[in-house]
Recover the amino acids of this structure.
C-alpha cells in the first residue's frame, strides 16, 4: 500500500511538473511575441482578412462580426471558414514583423503599414508603409528580408508603431 501511494504521489508530481513546464512554455511564447501593429480601433491589418491575402486574388475586408483576438489585436475575417483557418494556425497567416513595415524593419525601426502594400514571399505575408516603399522594397526583397531578420530581435521588444492621425485610414 505504501508503494502504491508513493507511485500515485510520483505520478501527481510528474503531471504537476509537466503542466508547469507547459504553462512556462506558453507564457514564454507570449512574452516573446512583439506588440502587434493595429489601427486606431485596435484592428490588425486595418480590418482586412489576413487569410484572404493567402487564398484570394486580392485581400478582402473582414467583417466586425467575424473576428478573433490574437496577440493584443482584433483580427477580422471575410468568412467563418477564414476565421477557423486562422485560429487553427495563426502563425501561417499573420504578417511578418507583427504587421510592421518590412522595409522599415530592414532599416532598423518600426513603421505603420498600408494593407494594400504587401507581398507574400515563400508563404509569409510582408506589409509595407505604402506603394512607394513597396516598390523600393521589391528592388531587393531577399536583401531587405535578411536585414529585417537581423534587426527584428532587437526591434520586437520596442512598442508598436503608432497608427496615422486624422481622417485618413
Amino acid at each position: 500500500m505504501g508503494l502504491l501511494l508513493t507511485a500515485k504521489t510520483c505520478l501527481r508530481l510528474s503531471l504537476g511538473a509537466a503542466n508547469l513546464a507547459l504553462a512556462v512554455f506558453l507564457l514564454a511564447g507570449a512574452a516573446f511575441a512583439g506588440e502587434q501593429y493595429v489601427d486606431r480601433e485596435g484592428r490588425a491589418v486595418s480590418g482586412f482578412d489576413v487569410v484572404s491575402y493567402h487564398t484570394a486574388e486580392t485581400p478582402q475586408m473582414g467583417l466586425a462580426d467575424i473576428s478573433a483576438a490574437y496577440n493584443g489585436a482584433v483580427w477580422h475575417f471575410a468568412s467563418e471558414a477564414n476565421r477557423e483557418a486562422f485560429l487553427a494556425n495563426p502563425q501561417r497567416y499573420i504578417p511578418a514583423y507583427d504587421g510592421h513595415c518590412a522595409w522599415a524593419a530592414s532599416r532598423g525601426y518600426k513603421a505603420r503599414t498600408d494593407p494594400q502594400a504587401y507581398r507574400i514571399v515563400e508563404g509569409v505575408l510582408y506589409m509595407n508603409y505604402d506603394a512607394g516603399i513597396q516598390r523600393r522594397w521589391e528592388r531587393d526583397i531577399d536583401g531587405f528580408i535578411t536585414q529585417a531578420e537581423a534587426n527584428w530581435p532587437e526591434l520586437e521588444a520596442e512598442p508598436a508603431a503608432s497608427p496615422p492621425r486624422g481622417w485618413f485610414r
User: Anything to note?
Assistant: The CA atoms of residues 56 and 121 lie 15 Å apart. The mean pLDDT is 84. The first strand starts at residue 63 and ends at 70. Residues 2-32 form the longest helix (31 residues).
